[in-house]
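[Q] Does anyone have a clean structure-token version of this?
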Amino acid sequence: MARFGIDTGRAVGVTVTELRRFARDLGHDHELAGALWASGVHEARLLASLVDEPALVSEAQMEAWVADLDSWDVCDGVCGNLFDRTPFALDKAVEWSSREPEFEKRAAFALMASAAVHRKDLPDAAFASLLPVIRAQATDERNYVKKAVSWALRQIGKRGAGLNSKAIRTAEQVERIDARAARWVARDALRELRSDAVQARLRKS
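[A] Here you go.
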């Protein structure tokens, strides 16, 4: 875990595979999720994201949990297992995108990326509206932020042909920004968005 940049100060060494098995056995339990999160234990917080009930998650809970984030894996797990399924997902993503704390800002883009994959119920227009936000925040040099910005741009651009064109156009605009992070984000995103594999899949969809 430490080798992958995860803070192990409050970790106990349970694998994600084991956590997913525990979550299946436990089922959904909002009260239990709250207690697990409050424990502060690294794996307990990941488990909380797996057993909580999206329909019962409030904006206040999202704000409290995002303020507690201290590692990229819990950030991504909470966003991809839970927050992206709430009614507030995209609004919170936009709100958090201009936050200063590193993992709160990463959460904004992890939420965009996860919602782009999981939220088939949302129209493409909802994701197209996020592209200006991505462009505006593409100059953050912090590693965990810029990687998440690229991730969001790539996942939005893989939802369909129309969004792919818009995401490529956004990446090209980002590439022209005079900032090293922006150039990295653009090139990382364009490599996948223009790839033969992605283009072939979009033609079939």
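[Q] Thanks! Anything notable?
[A] The chain has a mean pLDDT of 95.
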